[in-house]
Design a protein that fits this description.
4 helices; 37% strand
Length: 411
């Protein structure tokens, strides 16, 4: 017992001495940042005051906090990757990362976190960089409250704002990302959270998922991107309470879902997009309580999709509510509100007494021949749809909502 107490006292002494000897360093302009980093010990803090600091492949290989005061700028001079973090427990707060190098064969980033854990990148600004933040083979990294901005004009010569690869348990919260190829990119990333971000004005996608399972993106805004979000080759994803608006273009989608399964799409708003949701090869998805308003197509569901459930969604003022390229019905629509529904509710229970068939004849014609879109506002198109409603012949007769709601679910 006596020896145990001695060991405990020694551990407490070591812990307290570490706290006492942790040091705060004020970086000096005449000393390179790498020299200052090399002088520090684990647990120290480096304070940078306002001004410009040349950043040529700086490396942090110990637990440090780098704290900016009045927005000091790390300048890559259009040549360099600025900062690499290769140690656990590093905090980067309040810095500006500007003008990284670019390369068609190297993934040059303003800030890279690799093969480590428990890093925090918070309240920083990333301006005019190739990759903004690059996370690779790392765990428990938090990226919070940053502004990541560039001026991408082409997806070929520009890179991603926040790029994450082969990592786990990331938290990307409250960031603003614009002007990149993809705002946020996930590949082989698991058990991670994307929440409260605004990703807009990116050339390709606001958010791009590839082979990334058991993740969630919640309460984000994806606006005016080439497309909103692409989720591909993925399972067990939660897509909740996001807003997708003004994603327009010949091949623009608010969400592109390709070969995903066992996932949830709930409480989202799809407003003024070319296509709200495009689904291909996707199975066992639950799409509930979403609002589709003023889109070209609310949902385009390919014949390769099966066992998906659409319930309690609102379809309002879309050019086409649902389109498909097949005749076999393998998905279920139940209890949705359709503003094009012309049925009646004699018992006043809020549910229409006759089913609604959301697929118009003209939408199927367009799926097979895109050029026919020029006839969309013609009297012939309206006449064809009315005739098809009375005597279904081309549209899938069993593709219908048996219990259409008379009023929108969301006010």
């Amino acid at each position: 017992m006596k020896s145990f107490n001695c060991i405990l006292a020694l551990l407490m002494l070591l812990h307290s001495s570490h706290q006492v000897w942790a040091k705060q360093w004020h970086a000096q302009p005449q000393v390179s940042l790498q020299q200052t980093i090399d002088k520090t010990s684990a647990g120290d803090t480096i304070v940078l005051n306002s001004g410009r600091w040349e950043a040529n492949n700086l490396t942090i290989n110990k637990q440090l906090t780098v704290l900016g005061q009045n927005w000091p700028v790390l300048d890559g001079k259009h040549k360099y990757e600025m900062l690499d973090i290769i140690a656990p427990g590093v905090n980067i707060i309040g810095l500006v990362f500007e003008n990284s190098g670019t390369s068609s064969y190297n993934d040059i980033a303003a800030l890279r976190v690799k093969n480590t854990s428990n890093a925090i990148i918070q309240n920083c600004r990333f301006v005019n960089n190739y990759f903004g933040i690059y996370i690779q083979r790392s765990t428990n990294v938090k990226i919070v409250g940053n502004v990541v901005q560039s001026n991408a004009v082409s997806e070929i010569v520009n890179a991603n704002g926040i790029h994450c690869w082969k990592s786990d348990s990331l938290q990307i919260i409250g960031n603003t990302i614009s002007g990149h190829r993809d705002g946020i990119y996930f590949e082989f990333v698991t058990n991670s959270l994307i929440k409260g971000n605004s990703s807009f004005g990116n050339v390709r996608y606001g958010l791009h998922f590839m082979f990334s399972h058991n993740d969630a993106y919640i309460n984000n805004n994806f606006s005016s991107n080439g497309s909103g979000v692409a989720v591909m080759y993925t399972k067990h994803v939660k897509m909740l309470y996001n807003k997708f608006d003004n994603n327009w273009g010949n091949a623009a989608y608010a969400i592109l879902m390709k070969d995903i399964s066992d996932s949830y799409v709930e409480g989202n708003e799809f407003v003024k997009n070319t296509t709200g949701i495009f689904m291909e090869g996707s199975s066992r998805l639950k799409l509930n309580h979403n609002r589709f308003e003023q889109n070209g197509w609310a949902i385009r569901i390919q014949a390769s999709c099966d066992d998906n459930e659409f319930s309690a969604n609102d379809f309002i003022a879309n050019s086409f509510d649902v389109a498909t390229n097949g005749s076999l019905v393998l998905n279920k629509f139940d209890g949705n509100y359709w503003d094009k529904y012309e049925g009646y509710d004699l018992n006043r229970d809020g549910i229409g007494d006759v089913p609604f068939r959301p697929i118009s004849l003209f939408s199927m014609i367009i799926e097979r021949n895109n050029a026919s879109m020029m006839l969309y506002h013609s009297p012939m198109a309206a006449l064809l749809d009315k005739a098809e409603q009375l005597i279904p012949s081309i549209t899938p007769e069993s593709f219908k909502d048996e219990t259409p709601r008379m009023k929108p679910i969301k006010k």
